[in-house]
From TrEMBL:
SMART domains: HATPase_c
EC number assigned by the record: 2.7.13.3
Entries under SUPFAM superfamilies matching the protein: ATPase domain of HSP90 chaperone/DNA topoisomerase II/histidine kinase (SSF55874)
InterPro entries registered for this protein in UniProt: 2C_sensor_his_kinase, HATPase_C_sf, HATPase_dom, His_kinase_dom, Sig_transdc_His_kin-like_C
UniProt-listed CDD domains: HATPase (cd00075)
Transmembrane segments: 20-41, 175-198
Record keywords: ATP-binding, Kinase, Membrane, Nucleotide-binding, Transferase, Transmembrane, Transmembrane helix
Catalytic activity: ATP + protein L-histidine = ADP + protein N-phospho-L-histidine
GO MF annotations in UniProt: ATP binding; protein histidine kinase activity
PROSITE patterns the record matches: HIS_KIN
Protein name (record): histidine kinase
Length: 480
């Protein structure tokens, strides 16, 4: 039912009189009527021309009665009857090889207008027809033109305009009635077609959008995909795909929120347990038994990784959008600090090649970028890389920074989910949070990070970062 309030949401569809269907119906009628007017104008002009040509043809025939007499004369009664048949006050005929023949009765003396049909033009006929229809009183017209029976014969008649105007009005009324019937019939067909093909699908799409807005996590009763190949079908399929993607993202975020709440509750106890385990591992490291001492580093490493994972997960679940504390600093100095922070990871300082030239000054959050490059470097070194190379080059208002390692590369199954939390880990025991956090930080700076290549010869990450935050825009398309 039109104009009803969709259940479960506040959307109110417009009533029929204000609906898109009603507007389309009205526009169709208007456009058809405009088309009919454009057709009517030359039609009424043509109708007037045919009417006058018929009068000239009738006048030519009436003159034949004069030619049949020896003296080209007829009685007054016959002359009046012939002129009444023509509907004229005067008829004259002129042939190239003889004089002028005429029939005439007494009538009005003043001629109101003279028209030469041999000089008629398209727009002139339309203009004369409009003048005739607009006339309020009868006019006496003098019509001159070639006879339709013989173009070499010139015929002249004097007649009243009123009978012609009545015929023109009758013709106009017939055209108007026919136009209204065609307009209404066409508009009804267009209305039904557009209502079925456009308005109803659009109402379903609108109702689905409103329902999704009210309760985005409920899929029951939602819009389904369609096989239509036109724009409406494409829009409906894209909307269904978007809703499914957003619904999945919302469910994942709900689970992450629950995970964050759970981690927050158990974090304190878990850290205490790990601290106790760390103290025990220190005692094991000082044990007199060589076998026990040899196992201690492995235990310490496992506990350190557990502590790091716990802290990283808690931090990720607590963080909202990255808050930037902007300042200007030299990028090379930051890379040096990252190298020192990773001295105990993998092969240490020997594996970190800082090729960033001094003088690359950028405006950004130094601590946040430290996390980005520290995560990338740590991932590379822990994956087995013996060398990590950092290089940077300017591209317009951006810096393109390459982080390249010579590690074994990433497994193919990890690449599609590389920047998704808890799913993009490339090593056993990893959380997948490092790359997700790096991605969020780069986007907060108006930049981007993407993996350019990863194979058996190594992995290359490319980061795009604006030099100044005043030019921070989506950088992935601006620099490469």
């Amino acid at each position: 039912m039109l104009g009803h309030k969709a259940p479960g949401n506040s959307l109110r569809l417009p009533p029929l009189i204000k609906s898109l269907s009603a507007k389309l119906l009205l526009l169709t009628i208007v456009f058809v009527m405009i088309a009919e007017v454009l057709i009517y104008a030359p039609s009424i002009g043509r109708m007037r021309l045919v009417y006058l040509q018929e009068r000239l043809a009738a006048a030519h025939l009436s003159i034949l009665a004069l030619e049949a007499t020896p003296d080209n004369m007829v009685s007054k009664d016959l002359e009046a009857e012939l002129l009444q048949h023509v509907g004229a006050y005067m008829v004259a005929l002129k042939k190239p090889d003889q004089g002028k023949l005429m029939l005439m009765v007494e009538g009005p003396e003043a001629i109101d207008a003279t028209y030469d049909l041999s000089q008629a033009s398209f727009f002139g006929l339309i203009r004369d027809a409009v003048v005739a229809l607009a006339a309020q009183e009868n006019r006496l017209l003098r019509i001159i033109g070639p006879s339709p029976k013989d173009p070499a014969v010139e015929v002249e008649v004097v007649l009243d305009e009123a009978p012609m105007r009545r015929d023109m009005l009758d013709f106009s009324y017939r055209i108007l009635n026919l136009s209204l019937v065609i307009s209404i019939f066409t508009a009804a067909l267009v209305y039904l077609s557009l209502h079925l093909l456009m308005v109803r699908p659009m109402r379903r799409i609108t109702a689905s959008m409103a329902a999704f807005r009210e309760n985005p996590e409920v899929a029951a009763g939602g819009l389904t995909s369609t096989e239509r190949s036109d724009e409406i079908g494409i829009a409906q399929r894209e909307l269904v795909t978007m809703q499914e993607g957003l619904r999945a993202a919302l469910l994942q975020k709900t689970r992450l929120a629950a995970l964050g709440a759970a981690v927050t509750k158990v974090n304190h106890d878990l850290r205490n347990i790990l601290a106790t385990a760390s103290l025990i591992s220190d005692r094991l490291a000082r044990s007199g038994d060589p076998a026990v001492r040899s196992m201690a580093p492995t235990l310490v490493g496992a506990i350190d990784r557990a502590l790091h994972l716990c802290a990283q997960t808690l931090q990720f679940t607590r963080e909202g959008p990255a808050h930037l504390d902007l300042n200007r600093f030299d990028l090379r100095d930051l890379m040096t600090e990252v190298r020192e922070g990773l001295a105990g990871v993998g092969v240490g300082r020997a594996g970190w090649l800082n090729e960033v030239e001094r003088g690359f000054s950028i405006e950004a959050d130094r601590e946040q970028l430290y996390r980005v490059f520290s995560n990338l470097g740590r991932n590379a070194l822990e994956a087995g890389a013996t060398e990590v190379r950092i290089a940077a080059r300017p591209v317009r208002d951006y810096l393109v920074i390459d982080v390249e390692d010579n590690g074994p590369g990433m497994p193919e199954e990890a690449k599609p989910h590389l920047f998704k939390p808890f799913t993009g880990s490339t090593r056993e025991g990893g959380s997948g949070l490092g790359l997700s956090i790096a991605h969020d930080i780069m986007r907060a700076h108006g930049g981007d990070v993407r993996m350019e290549q990863s194979n058996g010869e190594g992995t290359l990450f490319r980061l795009v970062l604006p030099v100044a935050q005043s030019s921070a825009q989506p950088a992935a398309k601006k620099a490469s």
